[in-house]
Recover the amino acids of this structure.
């Protein structure tokens, strides 16, 4: 039973959203919306996201998340389909950084940022989920150190993976799938 129900200023559906420091962030049309749940203030940030899904097997156009350093938005550019990451200030949505990453995310089923590092989440054969560091935003380079984290899940869970979110306060990775939340400490 929810303890409180909030009304958002614009409709939302899907999995391409995050809540961080009492602010819900989601895509509405061509704008990123940041709505603070207590003060009810709303900020907008125009985003040129492709209408194609960000990941294979998904309908989400963006992936929103937060780490210790701020709000991160991952999307494909409408003009050329390039994978783009934005780092935004949560309170005012001012752009703090933008990176074009030369790689294809179509075989990912999700991603998240932890300590300024982009991690891919891949749903692969034999009911395995694989997490791999892909890009270091602060060194501005692709990563290829061979680290990979994998775990087995049942077939129904893997098929229903809805979201992977890093929580910077508890330092846990939370995977939402088939009505379950799998939570695990996730260090660097």
């Amino acid at each position: 039973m929810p303890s409180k129900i909030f009304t958002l200023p614009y409709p939302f559906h899907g999995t391409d959203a995050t809540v961080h420091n009492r602010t819900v962030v989601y895509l509405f049309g061509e704008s990123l919306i940041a709505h603070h749940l207590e003060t009810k203030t709303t900020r907008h940030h125009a985003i040129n996201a492709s209408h194609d899904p960000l990941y294979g097997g998904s309908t989400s156009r963006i992936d929103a998340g937060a780490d210790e350093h701020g709000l991160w938005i991952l999307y494909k550019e409408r003009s050329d389909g390039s994978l783009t990451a934005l780092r935004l200030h949560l309170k005012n949505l001012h752009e703090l950084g933008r990176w074009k990453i030369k790689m294809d995310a179509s075989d990912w089923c999700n991603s998240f940022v932890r300590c300024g590092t982009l991690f891919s989440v891949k749903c692969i054969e034999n009911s395995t989920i694989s997490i791999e560091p892909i890009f270091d935003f602060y060194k501005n380079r692709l990563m290829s150190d061979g680290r990979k984290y994998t775990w087995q899940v049942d077939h129904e869970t893997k098929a229903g993976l809805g979201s992977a979110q890093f929580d910077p306060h508890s330092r846990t990775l939370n995977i939402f799938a088939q009505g379950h939340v799998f939570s695990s400490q996730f260090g660097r």
